UniProtKB/TrEMBL annotation:
This is adenylate dimethylallyltransferase (ADP/ATP-dependent). Belongs to the IPP transferase family. The lineage of its organism: Eukaryota, Viridiplantae, Streptophyta, Embryophyta, Tracheophyta. It catalyses: dimethylallyl diphosphate + ATP = N(6)-(dimethylallyl)adenosine 5'-triphosphate + diphosphate; dimethylallyl diphosphate + ADP = N(6)-(dimethylallyl)adenosine 5'-diphosphate + diphosphate. Coiled coil: none annotated. One of its GO terms (cellular component) is mitochondrion. One of its GO terms (biological process) is cytokinin biosynthetic process. The keyword Transferase applies. One of its GO terms (molecular function) is AMP dimethylallyltransferase activity.
Length: 327
């Protein structure tokens, strides 16, 4: 069972400020809240974002620089409509495949989306592995993001040796789902894969296979196919390592406050055992962290938080409520 808690704009108490011998009543308004879900490719960022969105009325903003483009849903591992479970998503497959979409484009578009979401009194959850996008959005002085929003960063982490095995299995699964046929229309005879969705891992790796597909014998085609799949696995692992390096830099050098959730045991399990471990080690702790972030810091000053069913929940009790909700 899941309990949804309506967002509310939290205000600090009214304070008196001396002004020309008279008391001026001023209300301090707290900044809007934004949750960021980080992690390497394949670690479970999308899954966690949906879990959180079932606890807190939310909308999700994609921060993956390739998933913003239309096309290659299998290759880029876009979350499906069924997996989205009705949660609104922004910047997911909305940009034309051959267009450029810069860091500044992301910052402008995601800022507009966040403003729209908060105006609807919902929680923006920014999710993706393109940490350069996240860094530009939150640390660029032009956007003044930190002066406008309180930010909570959650990092879904998986031990690299375990993640590599999972990534390899995921690429095999993509192959059986039709990855090759999906990639074929994006083949470029001149080998230009520098723009739009063609930058996705998988497109350049299949260049030689598609270039010789019509003329090569079966043995050669099989060898080229296996080589392309192997390169996708290798390059995806390289990407994961690069992403982890950036997260550690943000945490250790730039001193971002990031909550790390170790999902490694989940990836060592299968079936219901893995699902139970995910709830216990990732989903439930994350929900409690978000609950504290949204409500507990102001529990002395707030009235009740109202749930989607009309249930009123004291902010200080949000931990116990969410503990029950995520069991």
């Amino acid at each position: 069972m899941t309990i949804s808690l309506f967002m509310c704009r939290v205000t600090q108490p009214i304070i008196n400020v001396p002004c020309s011998g008279k008391k001026l009543i001023v209300r301090q308004i707290e900044k809007e809240k934004v949750v960021v879900v980080m992690g390497a490719t394949g670690a479970g960022k999308s899954r966690l974002s949906i879990d959180l969105a079932t606890c807190f009325p939310s909308e999700i903003i994609n921060a993956d620089k390739i998933q913003v483009f239309e096309g290659l849903d299998i290759v880029t591992n876009k979350i499906s409509k069924e997996e989205q479970r009705g949660v609104p998503h922004h910047l997911l497959g909305t940009i034309k495949p051959n267009m450029d979409f810069s860091v500044n484009d992301f910052c402008d578009t995601s800022s507009e989306a966040i403003d729209s979401i908060t105006r609807c009194q919902k929680l923006p959850i920014v999710v993706g592995g393109s940490n350069s996008y996240l860094e530009a959005l939150m640390d660029d002085d032009d956007y003044k993001f930190r002066s406008r929003y309180d930010i909570l960063c959650l990092w879904v982490d998986v031990e690299m040796s375990v993640l590599k095995s999972y990534v390899a299995d995921r690429v095999d699964h993509m192959f059986y789902k039709g990855m090759v046929d999906e990639l074929r229309p994006f083949y470029s005879p001149n080998g230009d894969y520098s723009r739009g969705v063609k930058r996705a891992i998988g497109v350049p790796e299949f260049h030689e296979y598609f270039g010789r597909e019509e003329v090569a014998d079966e043995e050669t085609k099989q060898r080229l196919l296996e080589q392309a799949v192997k390169e996708i696995k290798l390059n995806t692992c390289k990407l994961a390592m690069k992403q982890l390096g950036k997260i550690r830099r943000l945490r250790n050098v730039k001193r971002w406050h990031i909550h790390r959730l170790d999902a490694t045991p989940v990836f060592r399990m299968r079936g219901e055992e893995a699902n139970d471990a995910w709830k216990r080690l990732v989903a439930k702790p994350s929900a409690l962290i978000v609950a504290r972030f949204l409500y507990n810091n102001n529990s002395k000053n707030n009235a009740n938080v109202v749930s989607g069913s009309g249930l009123r929940v004291q902010p200080a009790a949000s931990e116990s409520v969410l503990a029950a909700a995520t069991c």
